[in-house]
């Protein structure tokens, strides 16, 4: 975008790199272009297409990601010219959601978003072009038929998913009312923007002798970890959630909200913020507003200001956190992790006490 300032541009590229990593990829090359307006056929200029094709061949890249949303025709043309998988921003975010959806409901929601994003590509791709050519001759091209069949198949699947989702929503509501909760296990959900350091923190919290792999939780995916505090005989189950993304594509919003809804099961939310990010305040408010929308604002929340090592050179220079349930840490350096453990222990103990009261 030509209106972007230099630093905004840098920031966006950084965010895109974070998204690629979150989708399980590694960035091996970057190409930029400044243009007055997008090329209708390729989005970028023809020369740039050649340049990228050469780069991809040279470094044996297997995917090219564009930090914009491409039209169906652009995706189709670029895939042909570059000979690798071409993803636009929405595709990339959908990939992350596919990796992160845990419940059946979330998985269906992501599939729905994926299909809705694919639909115009089937229609506007080969099928439409052929129909335009064939239109004058009053014939139906083979490509158009194929496009129609594909479109119908996708639409059928979309309708089926919508029905299933309605059904699941009803079931969940009933389950919610009758769910048993183990007072000895504190359930914690990590929330925050992509790149805030959620997975680094998860790794840091579980990289201790007390980390146990429990058969009971053997079926849990890698994004959930268990910590055991032997001194208080309590377990803490920590789950990472799909990260917030700037300019969330609208078709993904429902899937995002559904994956986030899994937080409902948590006793405590850990809201991770990258304090070295100049936009952290705005992002913090966005996360808080979304939690409010999900009616989760009353859940106990620990605000974790991460990456303080990028702001101060030593642990000793971290200012004391005066607000309750606020903690400044460095997941990378391990600063103040013990303090965070203490807060978690406090909640684990409180949970059992609360249960005691309920039973009485
Ligand atoms: P997530 O997307 O929220 O899971 O974020 P990650 O844990 O993947 O972290 C994103 C990037 O920030 C990675 O390159 C991390 O190495 C880096 N990072 C995470 N925590 C810290 C920290 O405390 N200090 C610094 N300097 N970098 C960090």
Descriptive report:
This protein folds into 3 domains: 6-87, GTPase HflX, N-terminal domain (Rossmann fold, 3-Layer(aba) Sandwich); 97-177; 181-359, 3-Layer(aba) Sandwich (Rossmann fold). It is built from 10 helices and 8 strands. It is of the alpha/beta class and 360 residues long. α1 (6-22) packs parallel to α4 (89-100). The protein has helices at residues 6-22, 46-59, 72-82, 89-100, 104-135, 142-178, 198-206, 253-260, 280-293, 337-359, and strands at residues 63-65, 85-87, 185-192, 224-229, 234-240, 268-274, 301-306, 326-328. Helix content is 49%, strand content 12%. The longest helix is centred in the middle third of the chain and has 37 residues, at 142-178. The chain has a 6-stranded mixed β-sheet with strand order 4-5-3-6-7-8, with helices on both faces. α9 (280-293) links the parallel β6 and β7 (301-306). Residues 124-138 and 209-220 have low confidence and may be disordered. Bound molecules: guanosine-5'-diphosphate (GDP). Guanosine-5'-diphosphate (GDP) is lined by residues 18, 22, 192, 194-200, 243, 306-307, 309-310, 330-332.
Keywords:
single chain, 360 residues, alpha/beta, Rossmann fold, 3 domains, 6-stranded mixed sheet, two-stranded parallel ribbon, 10 helices, 8 strands, 12% strand, globular, binds guanosine-5'-diphosphate
- β-strand percent reads 5-15%
The number of helical segments is 10
Shape: globular
User: In the CATH hierarchy, what is the class of the largest domain?
Assistant: Alpha Beta
Helix content: 40-55%
Number of domains: 3
Mean pLDDT: 84
The ligands found in this model are: guanosine-5'-diphosphate
Uncertain stretches: 124-138, 209-220
Structural Rg: 24 Å
Which H/E pattern describes the elements? HHEHEHHHEHEEHEHEEH
What class would the helix/strand composition place it in? alpha/beta
Strand arrangement within the widest β-sheet reads 4-5-3-6-7-8
CATH topology of the largest domain: Rossmann fold
Largest sheet: 6 strands, mixed
Head-to-tail CA distance between termini: 62 Å
CATH architecture of the largest domain: 3-Layer(aba) Sandwich
> CATH homologous superfamily of the largest domain - what is it?
P-loop containing nucleotide triphosphate hydrolases
The overall strand count is: 8
């Amino acid at each position: 975008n030509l209106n972007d300032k230099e630093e905004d541009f840098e920031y966006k590229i950084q965010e895109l790199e974070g998204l690629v990593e979150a989708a399980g990829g590694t960035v091996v090359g970057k190409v930029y272009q400044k243009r007055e307006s997008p090329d209708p056929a390729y989005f970028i200029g023809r020369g740039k297409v050649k340049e990228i094709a050469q780069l991809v061949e040279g470094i044996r890249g297997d995917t090219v990601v564009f930090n914009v949303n491409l039209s169906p025709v652009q995706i189709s043309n670029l895939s042909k010219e570059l000979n690798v998988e071409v993803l636009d921003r929405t595709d990339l975010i959908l990939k992350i959601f596919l990796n992160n959806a845990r419940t059946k409901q979330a998985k269906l929601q992501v599939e729905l978003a994926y299909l809705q994003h694919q639909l115009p590509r089937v229609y506007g791709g080969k099928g439409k072009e052929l129909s335009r050519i064939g239109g004058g001759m009053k014939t139906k091209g083979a490509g158009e038929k194929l496009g129609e069949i594909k479109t119908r198949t996708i639409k059928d699947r979309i309708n089926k998913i919508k029905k299933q989702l309605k059904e699941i929503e009803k079931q969940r509501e009933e389950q919610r009312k009758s769910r048993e909760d183990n007072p000895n296990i504190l359930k914690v959900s990590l929330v925050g923007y992509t790149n805030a350091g959620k997975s680094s923190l998860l790794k840091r919290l579980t990289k201790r002798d007390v980390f146990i792999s429990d058969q009971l939780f053997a079926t849990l995916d890698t994004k959930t970890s268990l910590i055991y505090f032997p001194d208080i005989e309590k377990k803490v189950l920590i789950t990472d959630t799909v990260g917030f993304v700037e300019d969330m594509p609208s078709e993904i919003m429902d899937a995002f909200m559904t994956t986030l809804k899994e937080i409902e099961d948590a006793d405590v939310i850990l809201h991770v913020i990258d304090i070295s990010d100049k936009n952290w305040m705005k992002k913090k408010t966005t996360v808080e507003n979304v939690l409010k929308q999900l009616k989760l604002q009353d859940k106990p929340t620990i605000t974790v200001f991460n990456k303080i090592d990028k702001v101060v050179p030593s642990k000793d220079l971290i200012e004391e956190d005066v607000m309750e349930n606020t903690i400044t840490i460095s997941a990378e350096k391990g600063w103040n992790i013990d303090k965070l453990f203490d807060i978690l222990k406090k909640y684990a103990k409180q949970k059992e006490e609360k249960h005691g009261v309920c039973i009485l």
